[in-house]
Design brief:
Length: 493
């Protein structure tokens, strides 16, 4: 009887404690934006398409508005839909929405280090240092332009080898793009037929596909599933570790040959800063942050731009009349005797508009990377607590009907005025916006222009498939949009 009474008392205490915590939680989130009623444990997951979550959020927003709360498991997340809501949050309230949400798969792989998935002083110091170093090594200046031009020559030579038979351009393009970031971080490029280099790029490509799978998104909502279904996670982990091992070897070589008065690249600059701050116990400049930073830049600097180029060539094959217009503009402005320069872009409005429309239309990161609020904020009449997960749906910005004339049609006129001159649109956010905008935006813009123009200066492209039947829908959309696998024909001009 005494035991029964003790159990009853414990149950009452636990019940009161649960009620108290629930009440505090309900008070904390009482004035959050509206949203669908969550189920216990799983929240609103049954209402979210794991393969295309951004489309589910857009559908929900028709009921709950452009700022809403969706529960991903037990985690409430504020979802921002449409240009106005995303711009108001990320740009007009940049500080409050500049946090990075904890994403379990990246937290485990990066172990809390690096610039992309961290917050606070670590993020601020590493981002400031990285942007400064990129500028020192010529981001936006002639030195990097020359590296890209040199790489464009190798890329053209590689395409020439494939004239006359269909081939998959995936790894040819990724090798060219990766060599640019390799020049910045490692101080060297790699030969296209270097087996180790090709293996690394294959691992990066595999990880992008795995990170875009619904299984990985489930891990991010329920991290404990990694223990029950470790297969996908172990593949991501092993691939990432192979890349990190390669980078660790590069760091060791740099340490052995470092000349503090003559830094060669990003790694050298970081090692010098490590020496300068060696007596500071709270320094963010240690080998762990160096390793993860370089790993993140190597991955992001390779996959995003090369995927855009690959998707862009498929679009050009589907719309050969646009390809011909670019050929005409290149012949008129540059000719075929010299390589393109970045300054040519201002005299090539149609080509510039095409590249921008490719970026808009392929919608590379439909959900961006999850943000978090850095403090309590009142936003559009709602109270959003600090450290709340925020999902800016970039897809809804790039396809916003109030901002684009024909958002679901590939239309380069989105970036041309009535005089056929290039015009920018504030809803063009493929690199996100605000304080978490991609640090490599300037580099990516240079690469896309110089590589696209160099290829189209020398070649035209086609497919054995009827252009009208080419499917431009992405292969995966839960994290990164990648094109369907295809082979192209290269024709010398």
């Amino acid at each position: 009887m005494e035991l029964f009474g003790t159990v009853i008392l414990a149950a009452i205490v636990l019940g009161l404690l649960f009620f108290s915590l629930s009440k505090k939680g309900s008070i904390r989130y009482a004035k959050m934006p509206p949203g669908p009623t969550p189920l216990p444990v799983i929240g609103n997951l049954l209402q979210v398409d794991g393969g295309r979550p951004h489309l589910s959020f857009i559908k929900m927003s028709k009921t709950y508005g452009p700022v809403m709360t969706v529960h991903l498991g037990q985690q409430p997340a504020v979802v921002l839909v449409g240009f106005e809501a995303v711009y108001e949050a990320l740009v007009k309230n940049a500080d409050a929405f500049s946090g990075r949400a904890e994403i379990p798969i990246f937290t485990r792989v990066n172990e809390g280090y690096g610039v992309i998935f961290t917050n606070g002083e670590r993020w601020k110091q590493l981002r400031r240092f990285s942007l400064s170093t990129f500028r020192d090594f010529g981001m936006g200046k002639r030195s990097i332009e020359e590296w890209i031009q040199e790489e464009a020559r190798y890329l053209v030579e590689e395409f020439q080898k494939n004239i006359g038979h269909p081939f998959d351009p995936t790894f040819v393009l990724s090798r060219a793009v990766s060599n640019i970031i390799c020049c910045i971080i490692f101080g060297q490029r790699f030969e296209y037929h270097n087996d180790n280099f090709l293996h690394l790029l294959s691992l990066l490509n595999t990880n992008v596909r795995l990170l875009s799978s619904p299984f990985t998104q489930l891990f991010n909502v329920f991290p404990s599933l990694i223990k029950l279904m470790p297969g996908v996670y172990n593949m991501i982990w092993n691939n990432a570790n192979y890349v990190k091992q390669f980078i660790s070897e590069q760091i060791v070589k740099h340490k052995e040959t470092l000349m503090t008065d003559s830094p060669r690249d990003y790694i050298d600059n970081f090692l010098i800063r490590m020496k300068q701050e060696s007596a500071n116990p709270s320094t963010e400049f240690d080998v762990n942050n160096l390793l993860i930073n370089v790993s993140n830049f190597f991955t992001a600097g390779t996959e995003t731009t090369s995927t855009t180029l690959r998707y862009g060539l498929l679009i050009l094959i589907k719309y050969p009349h646009y390809q011909e217009k670019i050929h005409q503009e290149i012949d008129s402005v540059i000719g075929r005797e010299r390589l393109p320069f970045v300054e040519d872009r201002r005299n090539m409005p149609f080509t510039d508009a095409m590249i921008h429309e490719i970026q808009r239309f392929i919608d590379l990161l439909p959900l961006s990377i999850a943000h978090a609020t850095t403090r309590d904020i009142s936003f559009r009449g709602y109270n959003i607590p600090a450290k709340t997960v925020v999902l800016p749906v970039l897809h809804s910005v790039l396809f916003d009907k109030t901002q684009w004339e024909s958002p679901y049609t590939f239309n380069p006129r989105h970036f041309l005025d009535e005089n056929d001159q290039f015009k920018i649109n504030p809803a063009f956010m493929p690199f996100s916006a605000g304080k978490r905008i991609c640090a490599g935006e300037g580099l990516a813009r240079m690469e896309l222009f110089l590589f696209f123009v160099a290829l189209l200066q020398n070649f035209s492209f086609s497919s054995s498939e009827d252009p009208e039947k080419i499917d431009l829908s992405p292969h995966a959309s839960s994290f990164v949009n990648t094109p369907q696998a295809y082979k192209l024909y290269v024709h010398e001009r």
